[in-house]
Amino acid sequence: MYTILIVDDEKIERNGIKFLLKKQAEPFEIYEAPNGKAALEQLCSMRNQGKKIDILLTDVKMPFMDGIELIGAAKEEGFTLKTIIFSGYNEFEYAKLAVRLGVSDYILKPVNPQEFAQTIEKVTGELQKQYVENEQRLQQSSYMREYLLYTLFNGGGAEQVHTLAGNLAGENFWNHFHRIVFLEFDREFFGKKALDFQAEILEENMSEEYQYLNLNPQQAVLLLNASPHYMTLQQTAQKLHDAVFKKYGEHCHFAISTRKKSNFRCPAQRIRCTFVEFAGADVVYSGYRANRQEGTAMADVYKQSFKQNYTNNIELSIFNCGLERCAPGQTWGPGIRDHYLIHLVVSGKGVFEVGGRTYEVVPGDLFFARPSQLIRYTADEAQPWEYSWVGFNGACAHKLAAQLPFTDTAPVHHTQDLEGMRAALSSIYSSRGLQPQDEAAMVGYLYLFIAALMRETSESRPHSTSSSSQYVLNAIKYIQFNYSHDISIDDVAKSVGVSRSHLYRVFMLNVGKSPIDYLTEYRVNEACKLLRSGTLSIAEVAASVGFLDQFYFSRVFKRAKGVPPSKYMTSQADADVQPAPDET
What we know:
By secondary structure, the protein is α+β, with helices and mostly antiparallel strands. The protein has 19 helices and 21 strands. The protein has helices at about 10-20, 35-50, 65-75, 90-100, 115-155, 160-170, 195-205, 230-250, 265-270, 395-400, 420-430, 435-460, 465-480, 490-495, 500-510, 515-535, 540-545, 550-560, 565-575; strands spanning about 1-5, 30-35, 55-60, 80-85, 105-110, 180-185, 210-215, 220-225, 250-255, 275, 285, 300-305, 315-325, 330-335, 340-345, 350-355, 355-360, 365-370, 375-380, 385-395, 410-415. It is elongated.
């Protein structure tokens, strides 16, 4: 729909023009003004609002500013619009002057409806032709930019590309680009039927201005017109990754170039920059450069990582995992982690610092960091390391970590099965994903990795406990896992492979109480937790801690705590509603 501004100091004339316009086949959005001054103000106001007038219909003779002055002022203000004047016979000289000023056409008063319709049809046809030509120029310019980028990324000579850019796309073409985002999929993606990546993903999720270039079925490039902060780009990469995964179920990997610090004379010099910053959910490559034979290639330095932002598994969950070949001297820290972290060095070397001590780390070594430990690790300058890692946490993480071959004084362990350990960590990373089944697979492989380390623990660190204390530890584990069932001390003894009498003797020796007293005490303490919650009846609590008879449970509980379960529950409820003491 075209917009028209009618300018005439006679309202009846404006109404007549509006009447004729509404009879046209083409719909119009109509504005009006009583004189040239008001019309110019309206043009400027609409421009400030992002709107524009396509056609200006103006009378010649008006107060404050006539039609000729309005046309000249509009041209000086930079407005590009089609102008039609309507004039009386005695103002015909003004009309001829207006035509010399570039007016599209003129209509004599009184307005002839047929002549008016033909004039409007002619002007709207010119507008449509102009629109098509502009679209073709924009499309040609877009094709030219893509051609220049293809030439550059596929090894075209810098001087050749620079000349083409100057002649065909404008010298400022290269100055628009400040960062490059490289996208890669694990398999063919961009060649899928009916896939419009730019419209379905980029336009919906990119706030930055960009030039998009599809290199091949697996790779694409975004050249950014601005240089937003690194964290903003990381968030954008994450958003794009999530959008792709949600719509197509595919993982998209990202790399972001360093920020351009100054203008380069050679445009190719800017494009072939170094990727050194992490971006997105999955992977970053470093040292990207283009060549004629391969189109795109990756240098030796790389980083592939996955971070879990949310977990349903509170017992054991993976925080992050990945593999990386570091740059010389690359350092993390000093800093602390909020999770357990294990690195396996597969090649090269470096140093690990923790607890005020420094450890040299070589291939086959695993180094271990606990939550809240101040650590730093640095790749060697001459032989920078390549490692795999996994970070984990959860309710049972502490118990599992205690059984690994690491101590506070020996946080580095050398494995005799480097390839086996590497394969275990690789299985964790290969199972990565955002779905519950992916998380379950990752945690399953983590358990297998931890089990492999536990085997090395038993081989490399002999047990310091006696056989009798080991029987006790195993018996306690059995009780803690099975107290809610109807188990007996005979069941406990069978689980650790000793007689009931022998179990009694080693329990008294190591714990100071009998197995039945330990089982009863453990059940009563667990019952206290359930009673304090106030959500279960006494019968339900009894069944939950292994007592089939509620009344027998009550007698045992009173003997242990001095009060029956009902009174214990009431006392805990009263304690919860006690008013806070007056602090004044």
